[in-house]
Amino acid sequence: MDVKKSGLILSGGGARAAYQVGVLKAIHKILPKGHYNPFDVISGTSAGAINGVALASYAENYRIGIKHLERIWMHFTPEHIYRTDFLGVSHGILRMARSMVMGKRFKNDPVSLLNNQPLRELLGEAIKFDQIQGAIDNGALHAIAVNCSGLETGESVAFFQGHYSITNWNRHRRIGKRTRITLDHLMASSAIPMIFPAVKLHGEYFADGAVRQLAPISPALHLGAEKVMVIGVSGIAHKRKDHVKPPAAYPSPAKVMGHMLNAAFLDSMETDVERLRRINRTLTSIPEDVRKEAGMELKPIELLEINPSRSIDQIAGEHAAEIPKALKMTLGGSGNAGQNGSGILSYLLFSKGFCKALIDLGYSDAMQRADEIRGFFSDHFEEEK
Question: What keywords were assigned to this record (predicted)?
């Protein structure tokens, strides 16, 4: 049996990405003991890029990589991600207000609500970037991509490190650029616009990769993936509602901002998954010999999507008391827009309780689909026999 290269797609979503850790933990539990890294290609965006690169750095020992990743998230506090003291938060607010009214004082002054220097320090210590190339050279990993958004060009750039056979690509507003993945790439990919500062890479400032990311699955396919597993962070909160209650009051700033973040982080992935399924249905209805005769290069891509079974916004509301006081005051109340799927709190609540709840949910959701996961990797098991 031919073994298809498997791709892992990790979407963004700030603190929501803790859910991905639970799913990855369950995959390790489901697969046979001693199984090598099951993902040949990893493509991550925003906080998903942090998970992806951490996993890639341990591609030669998937078990240790998962334990390391879980340990990081289980010990998270907001202070590990951004300055939560009143001075740090108020300084960011004043700097933003001044830049909008009077312009920036200095050319390279960052404009952001929060200072994420603590995250830079944490990732610099926690992720062994120099181990990635060794995993690629030894065949434990084919490629890793970190997706960023160029603020000057408006292009979605997949910075990748991988097998020598992979070449750069150029599509409409989507390009792939070979590089050596560094801490700056992770900080750029997770720089939520206006909340965290953009990062200068290769002569251009880049922000969160979810912004203007038209085809989140595409980078993994360009890197050689022949089947993909998508671990999303949207869940049932974003399924179509038959009945919508009329609003009780004008939307708060937190609700509006949460709506914008949902549009950036969730909508493009859901749309791309739907597009891939539609293409697969079309291709499977055309006999393979007819496709070959017509010179069609497209082929069906096996897809397994895992999303939260509960509303992450609702879970965030249950842990609203864990938000730092300075940020709570800034966002107004809890910062959560309620149970209507538009709260900003779920993106910024890097607290132990909330992260643990999402890890547990991800683990439970994946274990419920153990048979599907085994089926997805069945060709890997056959090869080992």
Answer: Hydrolase, Lipid degradation, Lipid metabolism
Catalytic site residue from 11, 43, 46, 190? 46
Q: Measure the CA–CA gap between 321 and 336, rounded to whole angstroms.
A: 11
pLDDT digits (tens, 9 = 90+) for 101-140: 555 555 566 666 778 888 899 999 999 999 999 999 999 9
Q: What is the pLDDT of residues 308-336, one digit of tens each?
A: 999 888 898 888 888 776 666 656 554 44
In the chain, what are the domains? 6-235+254-379 (3.40.1090)
Please report, for residues 107, 117, 156, the alpha-carbon distance to residue 231 in angstroms, rounded to integers and kept in the order given. 39, 27, 20
C-beta separation of 17 from 359 below 8 A = no
- Any catalytic annotation for residue 208? yes
Residue 284 main-chain phi, psi, to 5 deg: -70, -20
Residue 365 is among the residues annotated as catalytic for this protein: no
Give the bridge partners for 208, in sequence order: 148
Q: Which of 316, 363, 310, 306 is nearest to 69 (CA)?
A: 363
